[in-house]
Amino acid sequence: MTPATIHLLEAMWGACISFLVLTFVFWPLEKLFPARDGQAYFRPDWVTDLCFFLGHYLFWNSLMFSTLMVFKGWFDSFTPALLRDAVHALPFWLQMFLALFLSDLCIYWGHRWQHNNEWLWRFHSVHHSSEHLDWLAAHREHPMDSIFTMGLINLPVFLLGFPIGALAAVGAFRGMWAIYIHSNVRLPLGPLRVLIGAPELHHWHHDRDRSAGNYANISPIMDVLFGTYRCPDHEPRAFGLGDPAPGEAPRPGHYLAHLVQPFSWPRLSPAGATSATPTQQPSPATQTSLRPEEKGAVPTSAPAPSPSFCAPQAAVETP
């Protein structure tokens, strides 16, 4: 067999093992602590998200890893040896803490940029097109969006010369965490969820309001500090992008269409922009997801921090 064939077989084996392990971990959690009760395992667009999962494992992850290694080699060439030695001398737990904190800061601002820049949004919107969230939906991500995100996550690791062990540990932890916060799970964390990210926080990020907030990844501290923390006591009424705005391309219907559409997306006019501004009223889809006392309120591009924590609540039945 050729090296390419061997690599493909190894990738297929890895994809199968990963799928079984993730199913074993998250399927029981989604059954025991469902955020949306009654959501079927084989829900709509399950096959599309499976294609994203397989695409990442069989091809895109290798491309992304190769790209990151190119950047790492470039940064290593000018990172001062004194700084690199100082970082390497730190205890591993402190390396992990610094890497996670600094990468969370980078991804927070990068994530906000993805939602406010039309060119970045055309790729990031692929991830937000999922109307059903679970552990498999976490893999719905355009390869260009993945490279941008992983580049930001690893930027401080590269700049400060963290050892490859810290890089691998941060990548593995963030990968599992990203799957967890997309899962159809609602765990009773109470006040701790202001320090530890939770699915209910990220579910509100996937609300149909493009400026819904909750841009942080590991910890919502960044959202609290910069005024984008949002934590209602219920699930959003609907996920996804909703109907296309005037001048916007139709929603893709299958995996390949999701990959191609960002490159052919027509430039949006101000009337077709989907991000809310202080003078815009919420769309009908967003209005229905608000609590009664919130209806009629004018949304802002940076929601103010909630004065209270998410309250425990029974799971929401799938519409």
Unreliable stretches, pLDDT < 50, 5 or more residues? 267-309, 311-319
The total count of strands amounts to 2
What can be said about the biggest beta sheet?
2 strands, parallel
- N→C terminal distance: 50 Å
Rg measurement, Å: 20 Å
Estimate the global geometry from the Cα principal axes. Answer: globular
β-strand amount: under 5%
In short:
With 319 residues, the chain is mostly helical.
What does this molecule look like?
The protein is mainly α and 319 residues long. 53% of the residues lie in helices and 1% in strands. Strands 1-2 form a two-stranded parallel sheet. The longest helix has 31 residues.
Give the helix/strand layout.
Layout: H1 3-32, E1 36-37, H2 46-76, H3 81-88, H4 92-116, H5 118-128, H6 143-159, H7 164-182, H8 199-205, H9 221-226, H10 255-264, H11 284-287, E2 316-317
Parallel strand pairs: 1-2
Helix pairs in contact: 1-2, 2-6, 4-5, 4-6, 4-7
Label this structure with key terms.
two-stranded parallel ribbon; 1% strand; mainly alpha; globular
